[in-house]
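sorry for the late reply, my laptop died twice this morning and i had to redo everyting from scratch. anyway the thing you sent over, i finally got around to it. pasting the sequence first so we're on the same page, its 307 residues, then the predicted structure underneath. double check i copied it right bc i was rushing
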Amino acid sequence: MGIIAVIQRKLLEIEESNQEFIARTLHKVHSNLGGLFVKFLDEQIRAIEDTKVKIKKRKGVIAFIRIFPIFSVAIENMLVSADDLDIRETVNNAYHRINKTMFESLKIIARENTGILESGAGGIGLGLENKEELNHQILLIENMNHYLEEVDPRRNPVLEEWKEKAAQEFDENLGRYVAAVMSRPLKHLLLFLDSVETAMLTLAEGVPRSTIAQNSRQSKIAFQQILAEHDSKYVRNGISALKKRVEKHFGDADDPGLSRALVAKVLEACERYFDDVDERVRAISSDVYDGVPTIEWTKSDISSSFR
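ok and here's the structure:
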C-alpha cells in the first residue's frame, strides 16, 4: 500500500511534464501492484469464509477478528498522507469487503457451532434460558468486544462505520445474554411480573389496577409468596452465582486485560437489568398491592452484591 501511494503521488507530480517514459513505467508498475492487491484481497476473503468450517470450539475470539485490527493499523500507517490519492478509496472499499465478510462469517460460525438457526430464538426475555442460544451470544459478544476495543478507526469513516455496527451487534447480543442469565435466579419473579404487567395493559379504562389482585394467580398472597422466595439472602446468593457464571463465560480470553474488562461490562449490564427488575417490582407493589407486603431486599443489597 505504501509503495502504491508513493507511485500515485509521483504520477501526479509528473502528469504535466514531458517525462513520458517514466510515466509509462510507473503506470505499468502501478497496474501490476494494483492487480497483486486485488489478488491478495480475494485470498483474504476466501480465507475468512473458509474459517467457518475449521472452528471447533463454542467461544473465543476468532482468528480473523483478532488479526484485522493489526492489519488495519499497518495499512493506515502506510497511508498517513494519502487521503487525496486513489489508493485511499481502494483501501476503503477493501475494508468494506473484509468487514462485511468477517461479520457474516462470524454469525455463520456462531450458528453452526451452537445449533442456532436464527439469533434471538429460544424464549429469551420470558424467564427462560436456552443453552445453545446462550453460547451463540457468548461467541458474538466476545468477538464484537474485541473488535470494538482493538480496531483504531484513525478518523477513517469506513472503520468508524464498522465500529458502529460492531457496537450495535454487541449491545443486541449482550441484552439477550443478560436476559437469559438473569432468568436463572429470577425466573419465577420475572414470570410473575410479566403476568401482572400484561394484566395492567389489558385493564379497561377507569378500572383500578388493584382489581388485578382479585385473580388468584396474581393475588396479594401470590405476590407475597414470590417476594418471600426472593428475600435479601436469595438475592445475594443469586448474584454471587451469577458472577461466577459470567466469569466462566468471559474470564478466560487470550488477552487477560480485555477479558477482565469484558467481565466488568457484562456484570454492569446485569446490575442494570436487576435495577430495572427492582423498579418493576416496586411499581406493581405500589400500583396493584398498595405497597404490601414489604420488599425485603434494598438497592444497596443489589449494588453491594455486584461489587
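The chain is about 75% helix and 0% strand.
thats about all i looked at so far, will dig more tmrw
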